[in-house]
Design a protein that fits this description.
The complex is a heterodimer of chains A (328) and B (508). In chain A, helix 6 links the parallel strand 6 and strand 7. Chain A has eleven helices and ten strands. Chain A folds into two domains: 167 residues, D-Maltodextrin-Binding Protein, domain 2 (3-Layer(aba) Sandwich), CATH 3.40.190; 116 residues, Periplasmic binding protein-like II (D-Maltodextrin-Binding Protein, domain 2). In chain A, the strands form two sheets. A five-stranded mixed beta sheet of chain A has the order 2-1-3-10-4, sandwiched between helices. Chain A has a five-stranded mixed beta sheet with strand order 7-6-8-5-9, sandwiched between helices. In chain A, 44% of the residues lie in helices and 17% in strands. By secondary structure, chain B is mostly helical. Chain B has one domain. In chain B, strands 1-2 form a two-stranded antiparallel ribbon. In chain B, a hairpin with a 6-residue loop joins strand 1 and strand 2. In chain B, helix 11 runs antiparallel to helix 12. The relative contact order of chain B is 0.19. The chains are: A alpha/beta (328), B mainly alpha (508). Chains A and B meet through strand 7, helix 7 and helix 8 of A and helix 19 of B.
Chain lengths: 328, 508
């Protein structure tokens, strides 16, 4: 390559940089230009997990939809707070977004000093959904949630319920059930959902308050497990006959669910947010994306930026005291 | 014949160009590092771990398993030709193997080792196919109390069977248990002993610990001794064995397979112990024990078969219970966890492609090793000419890059370097890092299971005695502790196989 060519390439490159830099500074007013560069998606949990699978499926749709490259990176650790903190520290321009959980965004900051708070979070929307499910073995003799609750009232602490971990949303709900409703189930935390489900299979616990991981659903589909109730605020489309806990006499227990969400730093431009939110909504209607994620892991109705931000706010307000008492 | 159809599916998984390449890569790397003194399978797998994160889980395990049993083949070569065991499990082979080389019989020694390893490996794979699925089915019923007694048994046996001093093994295991409590309390969910460092909220990373203790410390230790040069490399000669050699080796190979298989399953068992046990058995059974140490082919065939069989059967506890039986398997556990796969009784049903794919890959891998070893011995021997300083430097760079990619953070790099220095001094003062790593892994399971048991029993310790499986395991624990104390008190006893092992391992 001759010297003049190198120089020409340099000038072209430099002017491109200047143009994009200028474009970035007044980007707030130019939605039609977003995205004009690669978008970085930081996934706050390990590769292969539910956050990762959902995040990557959504990224690969949004990439096509928005006509730009999504650079996906896993940055796990400290209950998702390491990756989430990275996202929230980045420039609020929409070029760095994160796939994380509502728990990492809203609950973890209440318990640990992770360097951010819910105020620093701009929710984009819910990607995938893991409703809390109260599950028993099909041959357990419990055919409804009322059976289980009656037994728990007759024999306080006698029923052992496996959960996916002490800080899992489902575990916290069991603690609230005892405190607010005086119904005492002994919550036994495991390291994740799979070992809790194995304990149920081996009859080492009487029930599980878990979610809809693949291993769990395999047993449900095989008829080994019965779902007695869900922790979701409303009944779920794929199990319309299963009541919610709220309907079963525990009105306030609507937070026992995992939301895998898309976030950005607070103060990203309105129009950029709208673009990302719109693309996320389309992703969740795309058959190929739904296939990868699994229909049971998608909300019946899309939950966008405003609704999600409000839900996380409510959750923080309601659960704040008990979370600090339990885990702080 | 369920297993057979599953196995055929397993072949379907691995007979793809990519997966075949990973098998080949795994066994090649295994053979090479088996040849190179200093870099053992544990260090190598520790170094390779970060590279597996971007791979399919099955491909990752296929490759790492290949490194493990491949190193058992490779270690033989230097033991026989140079009297330098490339890795510890071949230490005992050096005794008679090198004598055979001096007598101009290196070819038969290497050939019979390759055949013995192949037979031992294949028999162990068949055993794995027959036992693992039903054991896993049984293990579904194992609850927290059973895991408590199993992990205690594991930790006790690791210290008891450790090849160095029992006291030092206990100390190393105690450090491992202490390190395991750092991070999030498994039952309360609160963090503890984190010094306020977010990097420690989810505990100290197993891979960073292992890469430090095995990888970095081994590089430091080997480089320190790099001035020493090895002796003359013996002539290989023709790689065949005579009819008489085969007649003499048939028995040791059969017994080596049958002995190596159960020893591999034991916590802390694995290659070293099985090869030494086989040597002891062959010497005792032999009609001419005086020939042992002077080039008896039985002393090569038996141990080499046994260590390969045990390196395969060592996978059983991990794939059925989620409990690693030695340091290599602890690292493979780390590789699975990083892929979000929790090994346990559900593994075979939840990830059949992984389980049966790995088994099929072992059959293919053993065949590759058999075919590869014969024509390529000469090439592998040339590797010994590479200066250890060069290998060490490259390995150090790979470790640093690798550990950074774990979480894309420099925090794990510091953990690894600190552990590397700790491991270096442990080696210098005669401590083994393996009990530390195993206790670190098992300790976390032990604490969690113990506290779960207490929740299930409403705080009564009787739960460990009233549940039959856990009661039986508790008795084993007590017997091991009692016999260990009894052995320490009675000084005049005859040296057992384990004592012989400790003596042999102490030589290096």
């Amino acid at each position: 390559m001759s010297k003049s060519k190198v120089l020409a390439a340099f000038v072209a490159g430099a002017s491109l940089l200047v143009v994009t830099a200028c474009g970035g500074s007044d980007g707030a007013s130019s939605s039609d230009e977003f995205p004009s560069d690669d978008v970085n998606m930081i996934i706050s949990y390990a590769a292969g997990g539910p956050t990762d699978v959902g995040g990557r499926a959504i990224a690969s749709f949004m990439e096509k939809d928005l006509g730009t490259t999504f650079v996906v990176e896993n940055k796990e650790g400290a209950s998702g707070s390491v990756g989430t903190a990275d996202v929230l520290r980045s420039d609020p321009d929409g070029y760095t977004i994160g796939m994380t959980t509502a728990s990492a965004a809203g609950r973890v900051p209440l318990i640990e000093d992770v360097g951010y708070d819910l105020e620093d979070v701009q929710a984009i929307g819910v990607g995938t959904f893991g409703p809390g499910l109260i599950i028993v073995s099909a041959d357990s003799g419990y055919s409804s949630i009322d059976d289980l609750i009656e037994e728990a009232k007759a024999n306080p602490g006698g029923i052992k319920v496996g959960t996916a971990g002490a800080s899992s949303p489902q575990h916290v709900e069991l603690v609230r059930m005892a405190e607010e409703y005086d119904v005492e189930l002994t919550a036994v935390p495991f390291q994740g959902e799979a070992p809790a489900v194995t304990a149920l299979l081996g009859d080492n616990v009487d029930a599980c308050f878990c979610s809809n991981a693949q291993t769990t659903m395999a047993q449900v589909d095989a008829g080994e497990f019965t779902i007695l109730a869900t922790g979701a605020p409303d009944r779920l489309g794929w199990i319309p006959d299963v009541p919610t806990l709220a309907e079963s006499g525990f009105e306030s227990l609507i937070y026992g669910n995992s939301y895998f969400i898309l976030v950005a730093p607070a103060d990203i431009p309105e129009d950029v947010l709208a673009t990302l939110e719109g693309s996320l909504e389309k992703a969740l209607q795309d058959p190929a994306t739904v296939e990868v994620i699994g229909e049971v892991r998608i909300l019946d109705e899309f939950m966008g930026a405003d609704a999600l931000q409000e839900m996380m706010g409510d959750e923080q307000e309601t659960l704040g005291p008990i979370l600090t008492e339990l885990l702080g | 014949m369920d297993s057979l159809t599953n196995l055929i599916d397993g072949f379907g998984v691995i007979l793809t160009p990519a997966n075949l390449l990973y098998v080949l890569l795994g066994v090649m790397i295994g053979t090479v590092i088996g040849v190179l003194p200093g870099l053992g399978p544990t260090a190598t797998i520790a170094l390779l771990l970060p590279f597996t994160y971007g791979m399919e889980p099955t491909s990752a395990i296929i490759m790492l398993a290949g490194v493990y049993y491949g190193s058992m083949y490779g270690g033989t070569i230097t033991s026989v030709l140079l009297r330098i065991p490339g890795e510890a499990a071949s230490a005992v082979t050096a005794i008679d193997g090198y004598e055979m080389t001096k007598a101009g019989r290196a070819g038969p020694a290497l050939a019979i080792s390759a055949v013995g390893s192949f037979i031992g490996g294949t028999i162990a794979i068949i055993g794995l196919i027959l036992i693992a699925p039903s054991l896993a089915g049984f293990a579904v019923r194992f609850g927290p109390p059973e895991y408590v007694t199993l992990t205690v048994l594991g930790i006790v046996m690791v210290t008891y069977l450790g090849t160095k001093s029992t006291l030092k093994s206990v100390i190393a295991a105690a450090i491992g248990l202490l390190l395991a409590v750092v991070g999030t309390d498994p039952i309360a969910g609160t963090t503890r002993f984190t010094l306020g460092l977010p990097g420690l909220f989810s505990g100290i990373d197993l891979v960073a610990v292992a890469m430090g203790l095995f990888g970095v410390s081994e590089i430091l230790y080997v480089m320190e001794r790099s001035g020493q040069s090895h002796g003359k490399i013996g002539e290989v000669g023709r790689l065949t064995f005579s009819r008489e050699d085969w007649k003499a080796s048939r028995g040791p190979i059969t017994r080596g397979s049958l002995l190596g298989f159960p020893i591999g399953v034991l916590p802390g068992g694995g290659g070293v112990l099985s090869s030494i046990a086989s040597y002891g058995v062959e010497k005792r059974r032999s009609k001419h024990p005086e020939e042992f140490g002077k080039g008896a082919i039985e002393g090569v065939a038996g141990p080499e078969t046994a260590n390969n069989a045990s390196s395969i059967s060592a996978f059983i506890p991990l794939l059925t219970l989620g409990l690693p039986s030695n340091a290599v398997l602890a690292l493979i556990l780390g590789a699975l966890m990083a892929q979000n796969i929790t090994p346990g009784p559900q593994l075979i049903t939840a990830h059949p492609e992984l389980f049966w794919g790995v088994i099929a890959s072992m059959l293919v891998g053993n065949l590759i090793l058999l075919l590869l070893n014969w024509p390529m011995v000469g090439f592998f021997v040339q590797l010994l000419r590479v200066r250890i300083g060069i290998i060490g430097g490259i390995a150090m760079l790979i470790t640093l890059v690798g550990v950074y990619t774990l979480n894309n953070s420099t925090f794990d790099m510091w953990v690894m370097l600190i552990m590397g220095v700790l491991g270096y001094f442990m080696r210098k003062f005669g401590f083994e890092p393996a009990p530390l790593v195993l206790a670190f892994v098992l300790g976390a399971i032990l604490e969690e299971s113990f506290r779960q048991s207490m929740l299930l029993s409403d705080g009564s310790l009787a739960i460990f005695a009233t549940r039959p499986i856990s009661a039986v395991l508790s008795v084993f624990v007590l017997v091991f502790i009692a016999s260990s104390i009894w052995g320490a008190v009675r000084k005049d006893k005859k040296p057992s196989i384990i004592d012989q092992a400790k003596e042999l391992a102490g030589e290096d």
